[in-house]
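Sequence only, no structure available. Ideas?
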Amino acid sequence: MIFAAPLALLALALLPMLYFILRLTPPEPQRQRFPPIALLQDLPETQHPPRHIPPWLLLLRLGALACLILGLAAPTLRPPPALPGTGPVLLVLDNGWASAAAWPQMLQTAKNILTAARTQNRAIAILTTAIPAAGDVPELQGPFDAATALQILSAIQPEPWPADRKAAAAALRGADETTRLYISDGTGVGPAFQTFLTALHLTSAFKPATLPPLLAPPALNASGNLTLHAISNPLNAALLGESAGGDIITRMAFDPSGNATLDLPLPIANKIAKFVLDGPPTAGGTVIVDSSTRASLAALDSGSANADSPFLGTLYFLRRALPQTTKIITGSFEQILAGKPATIFLADSPLSPAQQALAKNFIAGGGILVRFAGPLTSETPDAFSADTLLSGERHLGGALSWTTPEQLAPFPATSPFAGLAADPKVIISQQILADPTTLDPATIWATLRDGTPLILGKPMGHGYLVNILTSANADWSNLPLSGLYPAILARLSSLGQGSPMNPNLALPLQSALDAYGTLSPPGVTASLTPARRGSATISPALPPGLYGNGPGFIALNLGFHVQPPVPANLPNATPLGAPAPPRNLGPLLVALSLALLLLDLAFSLASRRVLRLRRLGLVTALALPFTAHAQSAALQTELGYIVTNNPATDQISADGLGYLSANVSAHSSIQLGAPVALNPGKDDLSFYPLIYWPLLPSAPVPSPAACDALNTYMKYGGLLVIDMPGSDPGAAGSGAGFAPGASAAFTRATACLNLPPLEAISPDNVLARSFYIIPDYSGRFTGAPVLIATPPALDADGVTPIIVSQNDWAGAWARDASGEPEQTPLPGAEDQRVVADRFGINLVIYALTGSYKSSPNAAPALLDKLGQ
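Reply:
I predicted one. Tokens follow.
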């Protein structure tokens, strides 16, 4: 153990002085003989004033002060090993994309170094190897004291681009720190890295045990499925496909060659926005998916009956020239629209006005409609085209003819086909002409050498309408026989997947990918053209992320745009996370000192009888066994019901008393809580003014503890309502007028209770008018006798301790979750239920207020209330 502030330990010398101060007592009083004081000699001594501070209290106070002094000295347990050398320390820290996977361990190692430097009172200089922003270079910071260096270290984060060790080597020139420590991301190869190590004059190094993960950009295989390759996957983790919202759509495993293949239905596969390795999130283990790596769905339609005839059919060459990753559907125009393709190719297929309206909606929603010319569209042209077309066609030997077939001109820079080489062997012998008087130059995507437009394109909504003014087969040109034909169709298909139209158009950075693989709004201004993406290098000026605007965007991932990770050759490097971090005991000792002082304050208050510790402890001990529902019953008035062995009956009791409680709260000033299920003998019954007991014919004999609890409850003012809902009240019976089954159950269950003599309730009893004036005491049944205690057994408020009936009041009160009654009253239907509801309110008011309405003294006040 070492102390960061050892001078604070000098305060321990004050402990002996404090000991004598605490031991100090007032001077002994002067003694004076007084003879009458002998009369008090035999009186018992009631108070014992302390002559000295108790030893345990003295030790308590000395211990509190000692803990405070030791805590302020900042002792450290398991300190880090001492740094080699003397003088300032140079800490070099890799913070490129490769450091993100091991960043927590790298950061903890750096903190351990700074803590060790602090104990040795050594200054720290820090150098990070990644360029912080475009146009900057790594700069040496410091030297600082250890506390300042810790603040700077906490602000350092990994960057999503590679470390620039060549620039870091230049920043090391002139550094005079003798001890030089390097925390590596574990990668490094080539002359720049060796130059960096030479300039560093390394004292010791630390590096992760494994290489950082790196995924190659996805590619489509011949089956149209997406394949991803792990350039480096040290954890051998699974690959997760996530949607734009972060939901996991699929989980894939890598084969021994490091490839993972996505095999999902096209609509589901195209919902995947990025792939991430299952593990610590990093930019190297994240791949953003764009339109170039999504399989497309294309539809083919032709006006010819023999569209797929070998070499002659209008769809023969078209079907074979589409990219292999394209899923193809065919059928009528209405059928292929129902398949929701991205691109539709119409080979010499005229469109009716109704089909043209459907095509406009398809294009406006982002679809691509490509129309090839042919004899049918030449003979019966329609106006649905990218520009105005002339009737008839231009061909060799015709009225609008040329003497020799024409070749393709170079594609315009603004065309989607920019960058493709115009094949000089392609000749066009027949085509449809655009009207030169109304031709819009913006719609021209390809022309012949004589300037005649060959391909027209026009944006409509989010999609494009494209006219190729020659046939899709080899009847009018040899274009379908050339290698340029598949390239043109691939560019048109990519438009349907959301690719930018112009490959040379600079696309702004829309969302940047940070070192942990999270897309966020960019903090820099950057742009990228689709044509340049293949040769782009990740840097602060061109960070990874999504580039584009509107519907078209491209993704720039780390794979193939950074150097593959290669293990760094660092002799005698220490693995990250090997040394245990130091533990500062200062805060713990200070907290212990405060706890001892609070304990001393509690004993001081107790000695002055301000705080009674014994009583407080007793109350706490007694409060612990209380159940939750007993505490709530003490805070809010609640009704109770006794549980049975029948779940259906218990549910009726709960629903019935629940509705009754809500009904009372709605129609009176009493606010009742939810009813509580009770088990006499285990639960405290004293909190409940009314307890409902549904007594079934099969009810067992209560336990002695339950009998004692119920007797005590009735004795001290509780109202026990015994209802026998399971019996038929219409059956002739014996014993107080109940049916035989009910009478036997009542006798058996109440044999242990101290019941008072019972009599039938009269129609003018206070229960008939305690809140509502009711004609009888109906429940779900009616006609059965209702028994209460005889007048001598009533309590001081004139309230009976027990009510016995067979009317099933809870069955009449019970409502389901939607407020509908659960059981039907017999025989009086809803009028009988209204009386039962009102009797329930009368019953609760009676249990809470007694029989004040039956008192002659209350009559004038009641009459006055009625008059108002």
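Residues 508-556 form one domain.
Hope that gets you unstuck.
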